[in-house]
Write a structure and sequence with these properties.
The chain is mainly alpha-helical. The chain has 2 domains: 68 residues, Winged helix-like DNA-binding domain superfamily/Winged helix DNA-binding domain (Arc Repressor Mutant, subunit A, Orthogonal Bundle); 135 residues, Up-down Bundle (Four Helix Bundle (Hemerythrin (Met), subunit A)), CATH 1.20.120. Helix content is 73%, strand content 4%. It is built from 10 helices and 3 strands; from the N terminus they run αβααββααααααα. A 3-stranded antiparallel sheet has the order 1-3-2. Helix 6 crosses helix 8 and helix 8 packs across helix 10. InterPro entries: GntR_C, TF_FadR/GntR_C, Tscrpt_reg_HTH_GntR, WH-like_DNA-bd_sf, WH_DNA-bd_sf.
Length: 212
């Protein structure tokens, strides 16, 4: 494969993936090679390469009759992913305090929250920044396997998060609450800091996502 073909395949992959993640192409939407080649203005070769990568990642589903759709997000998916997040991030957040690193992590998390605030008018970019903030929390484990679990679910986390926002999770209020969480962290106040994380992200976030 030439460099040009590789570049086109990468471009196709990035564009199709972005349209899926930002819900321009929502879960369950039918896709065809013809439609993708027409919308992206590319030949079938790079499109097929991109489709294969996205099938491996689980973002595109092909049935027995080889028809393609954007992979669905079920209520079961949402419950399971939020259960996983609460289990891992809950323990990570506790470890940040018991290890005495709450001041250090308050600044690391604040850097991510600043990016969330800067992206407040673009909910797709805000959700990407929010996901990075959660990755910062679990980095306390220094565990590559846990990082991989999160990385493997990043696409679903972003799509589910966008449903939360679209269904009433207020970006501005969430940003302000995270700023309060950071202040509680600097004061070594685990209970109040974790209460914000749990209420906003594991409570309201999940409830709003389920309204999809």
């Amino acid at each position: 494969m030439t460099d040009k073909s590789t570049s086109l395949a990468d471009q196709a992959y990035e564009k199709i993936k972005e349209n899926i993640l930002n819900l321009t192409w929502p879960p369950g939407m039918p896709l065809t090679e013809a439609r993708l080649t027409d919308e992206l203005g590319m030949s079938r070769s790079p499109i097929r390469s991109a489709i294969h990568r996205l099938q491996v990642e689980g973002l595109i589903t092909t049935d027995y009759y080889r028809s393609m759709t954007v992979s669905e997000i079920t209520d079961k998916d949402i419950h399971e992913i939020y259960q996983l997040r609460e289990l891992l991030e809950g323990e990570a957040f506790k470890l940040i305090f018991t290890s005495g690193k709450y001041d250090e992590y308050s600044y690391r998390i604040e850097e991510r929250v600043v990016r969330m605030c800067a992206a407040a008018n673009d909910i797709y970019q805000w959700e990407i920044a929010d996901t990075a903030m959660h990755m910062e929390i679990i980095s306390i484990f220094e565990n590559n396997r846990i990082n991989k679990i999160y990385e493997n679910n990043l696409s679903e986390l972003i799509r589910i998060g966008l449903y939360s926002v679209k269904n009433g999770m207020a970006v501005a209020k969430t940003n302000e609450n995270l700023k309060k969480m950071i202040q509680y962290m600097r004061n070594g106040d685990y209970e109040n800091a974790y209460s914000i994380l749990k209420t906003d992200h594991f409570g309201i976030g999940k409830d709003r996502a389920l309204l999809k």
